[in-house]
Write a structure and sequence with these properties.
Mean pLDDT: 92
Low-confidence stretches: none
Largest sheet: 4 strands, antiparallel
Structural class: alpha+beta
Distance between the termini: 14 Å
Helix content: 10-25%
Radius of gyration: 16 Å
Number of strands: 6
Shape: globular
Strand order of the largest sheet: 2-5-1-6
């Protein structure tokens, strides 16, 4: 089964410097290579543009639509035998120490 691990944290709330954090992510990716199908980090939330359509018209909003303490910073697509395995891998993502990792199954439409 496939699961998306969404990585949330407050910007600037890293518990180590960026170089160390990147090294920790590289180590995690090496360890989890057998289950990671893909993933990426996202640019800062200040670079976001939100789109919504109301009454047939598009509205564009610079920055995030919702004000939240934690923002989506990246994701991994995992191939695991079940949710328990996906949760074990999610707990090893470095940002789990101070942020939140949301794990959601990928909907399989046949």
């Amino acid at each position: 089964m496939q699961y998306l691990a969404l990585i949330y944290a407050g910007e600037g709330e890293d518990d180590v410097d960026m170089e160390t954090l990147i090294g920790q992510y590289r180590a995690f990716e090496e360890q989890a290579a057998k289950v990671i199908l893909g993933g990426n980090a996202l640019e800062a939330v200040s670079t976001a543009t939100s789109v919504r359509v109301r009454k047939g018209k598009s509205e564009l909003i610079d920055g995030p639509f919702a004000e939240t303490k934690e923002q989506l910073g990246g994701y991994y697509l995992l191939e695991c035998k079940d949710l328990d395995e996906a949760l074990l891998w999610a707990a090893k993502i470095p940002t789990a120490r101070y942020g939140t990792i949301e794990v959601r199954p990928i909907m399989m439409i046949e």
